[in-house]
Amino acid sequence: MRILIIDDDKDLCMLTQKVLSKNGYMVDAFFDPKQAIKHAQEKKPSLILMDVMLPGLSGPEIVNSLKNDPRFKDVPVVFLTALITGEDRSLEDQGLTVGGVQYPTLGKPYEIDKLLAMVGRFIKKDGNS
Amino acid sequence: MGKDISVLFLDDENGTLDLLRNDFAQEPYGILATNNPDQAMEVIKKEKIKVVLCDQVMPKIQGVQFLQNVKQFDANIVRILLTAYSDHTVVEEAVNIGEVYRVIGKPWKRPDLISAVHRSIERYDLTVKTEAANQKLKAMYEVQREFTSVVSHELRTPLASIKTAIDLVMKKTLGKINAEQEEVLGRAKKNVDRLKRLIDDILDLTKMESGKLKMNIMKNDIHQAIKDVAEGQRDFAQGRGLYIKTAPDSQVPFISFDSDRIGQVLNNLVGNAIKFTKQGGITLKTTNKYNGDFVLVSVIDTGKGISEENMKKLFQKFQQVESPEENEEGGTGLGLAISKEIIGLHGGKIWVESKVDKGTVFQFTLPLQERVNTDTAV
């Protein structure tokens, strides 16, 4: 059970990794979306936590390309973004829509408790990692 | 010669046209006097005509009809009807259909006509100027909104790392910290959180001011909204030894409002009331049929009250009457400005009444009937 983090903000990427690993999750963190996808294809994650505005490939583009692959159909995706303005509601309330699917979205800066609750909704911790 | 044609006369009598050409020869603007409605319309479409004066009784077209056509082409062109008839149906039609600026009886006095035309030109120029200014303002709001949105994203990104780092240490996830370290970090955390709220509030307010905030207005129970806020703030109030109670008017029906946004307003008002009340408490009250067509919501506290002078500044941006106590969440100074915008977008009003040492009542109204047109231009 591994979480894949994709965020080009290196500081936050490392901090988020620390938050999750200190709370008992196995985490792989990537700044570069292309490397992250390559990694995901080799080692299928149980949850992907990613930024929306990424260099080269945007978060929604990554989702689109991954969701075309049947192996990733049921891998949950959570967006983490500093871009909180949806059209009328905030993205956090609304979720970010990609390909007609609404993905849960957490605004940056996030509350650690909220992040842990969100992750906990999708995966159980490994026994002793 | 060399004067731009600004005024157009349409009359079927050539004698009248000659007279007009003569009368207006000395004026600083050019005129065109014609008996041909088709030619007149062509000129209106080509030249920058500001005023059209038109006879009522003509063989090809009625004056009112012609002026209505002018209005449809460009409503800014000021329209005047000239008529020898004192028949009031003509005047009625001129006003109701042609939406004319003046009706002038024939025969007219030269100075009267010249002054009417003069005023019409002023009126046209003013309208056009106002419209241009309005357009410019709208464009500026749009630029400001985009700028704010980008800045907000750019501020949030570094803030996210600062907050997560502080929270990680504060939560003792990385190991124990001593009381002094916790106190110092606690002050940093408080201010980081405040900065985050400030960025959110500025973004909210900018969206509202530029008319970009979409409301999710639907039939809702205002008493449920009030109950939710009272429950949500109960711990905060009781922690300070204050009561929080509701006094709903059972006659209040379901009304149309955005429950998230009205919740935001109520939370803001109740939060403020708690912060500035030392003993007693807060009452949330509703009144049906206030001023006939509104529901009145009152947030009543038994706090220290607000002076006349401070009351005037309350709804302005970044106006904080008093800094909160030590260890208390500071406000952003935008809460009431945002509340005012939200209530305004609902078609209601918000105001405050207060007596020093007696307490303060914040009140707002929400319309009982949904407004048909919610389009609020800048």
Anisotropy-based shape of chain B: elongated
Figure out the total of helices of chain A: 5
CATH homologous superfamily title of the largest domain in chain B: Histidine kinase-like ATPase, C-terminal domain
Largest interface between protein chains, with number of residues from each side: A-B, 23 and 27 residues
Strand fraction of chain B: 15-25%
Unreliable runs of chain B: 372-378
Q: SSE order of chain B in H/E notation?
A: EHEHEHEHEHHEHEEHEEHHEE
Could you please say which CATH topology of the largest domain in chain B applies here?
Heat Shock Protein 90
Per DSSP E runs of 2 or more residues, the count of β-strands of chain B stands at 12
- Average of per-residue pLDDT values of chain A: 87
Q: Which outline of chain A best applies?
A: globular
- Write down the Rg of chain B: 31 Å
Low-confidence stretches of chain A: none
CATH class of the largest domain in chain B: Alpha Beta
| CATH H-level superfamily title of chain A | Response regulator
- Give the structural class of chain A: alpha/beta
Beta-strand level of the residues of chain A, as a percent range?
15-25%
